[in-house]
Every structure is written in C-alpha cells, then in structure tokens.
Amino acid sequence: MALEYRITLDDNHEFSYRIELDRAYDPVVAAAAPKWTRLEYQQCSNCPLRKEEYSHCPAAVDLHRVIEDFNGLPAFKKALVWVRTPEREYTKQVGLEEGLRSLLGVIMATSACPMLGKLKPMAHNHLPFASNQEFALRAVSLYLARQYFNMREGREADWELKGLVRLFKQLQLVNQAFWQRIHDTCEGDSNLKAFLTFFSMSTSMTYSLETQLQKIRPLVMSAGDTFE
Fold it and tell me: Which of 150, 193, 156, 182 lies closest to 64, judged by CA?
C-alpha cells in the first residue's frame, strides 16, 4: 500500500515521491544518509532506540530527500500538489509550506520511529491538506475507536482521552528535536515553516484539547438525536 505525491512549482520544476505505508528500517539505506540523520544527532529526549541497533534516526532517513529537495526555497512559493491514495486523488494549488506539511507528516507517521508510529492509523487514512479541525476530529475519532475495541476485548478503555494527551506530549518532544535537526541543515524557510505548522497542530492536542473538542462539537452534534 503506497501514497504518491507530486509537487509542481510555479516554474514547472517537479518533484515526485512514493511513500510505502508499511516499511522497515534499512541499515544499508541509512548508512548512505547525511550526517544530520544519525541517531545521536539532536536525538529526541524520549527516543527508545539504541545506536547499537539503529545508527540513524529512521524518520530522518526517510525525510532527508524531501528536506534536501526543498532546501533554500521560500515557504510562500506557489505549488500544485497532486496526491494519490489507494482510494482517491487530490489536487490543490497551495503555498509550498502547506504542501510540504502534508507530505512530511505522512512520511514521519509511517517511518520506523516507534514514537511517530503511534500516528500510523491516521496515515493509513491519509487526508492531505487537513485543517486543524479535521486533524483534531480524526485524531480523537481514531483514539475513541481504539478505546471501544479495548472495552470489547476486555482491556481498560480511556473515554476521557487522557492517553491521547499523553501521546501528544510525547510527540511534542519528538517535534522539538526534529526542529533542531532541520534548523541546523535548512537554508530556506519552506521546510522550517512546514514543520512549524505540523508541530502547532500536534501541540494543540496537548495544551488546548478542550478547545479543539469545543470546535468540533457542533459538527459532531449536528445530527441531533439521529444516532440514539
């Protein structure tokens, strides 16, 4: 199962990527990656990986081609982004920042990083160019679906979303470390601003979850008593 991205800049320069959603860490590929992808380089404070087994950060290895492709390009540069998932295609004219946010996010969520891998269910139902509201709705919905199956299968269910907040607190530490990784290597602002936008969406699930829930409440409750 794979996703395809094609980003065409306003000067007709084109970049194409194929993202396999289920992929493993490849030490041979990692060995050829640049220095800033090494595991100990700005390693996340909560990283469970050991350099004896992983010489490089799995997510950084997966990202480095995209980071290098867009290094030096301004975030406001216009781009036509085409995305194909197994179910459908999307096309949108966006600022480069928005297109990269979507691409970088799905690469990170499907990497072999055990922390970012917590987002893989969202990647398997990838929604390019998602708004903050859509991101919150999908994250909460998938988390609650998991709690339902926990309940059915005899495990403790977390209906108060405490585990979701804990998850995004852990992802915040990953975000901060990744910011340092790319800040040290990027010249332009397209990659940096794309990461900042992605990070701000994740952060909102930690510091303002109740606010996010209130924003999606009208949508969820708009059916009235239909489901009762």
Answer: 182
| Non-local CB neighbours of 62 within 8 Å, separated by 6+ positions | 23, 107, 108, 110, 111
Q: Quick check: is 126 in a domain?
A: yes
Q: Does 62 fall in a domain?
A: yes
Q: Please report whether residue 228 resides in a domain.
A: no
CB-based contact 78:96 (threshold 8 Å): yes
- Whether residue 226 is contained in a domain is answered as no
Q: What is the pLDDT of residues 149-202, one digit of tens each?
A: 999 999 999 999 999 999 988 988 898 888 888 877 776 676 677 777 777 777
The domain in which residue 161 lies consists of 2-221
The upper half-sphere exposure of residue 201, i.e. CA atoms within 13 Å in the direction of its Cβ, equals 20
Burial class of residue 105, CB neighbours in 10 A (0-12, 13-18, 19+): buried
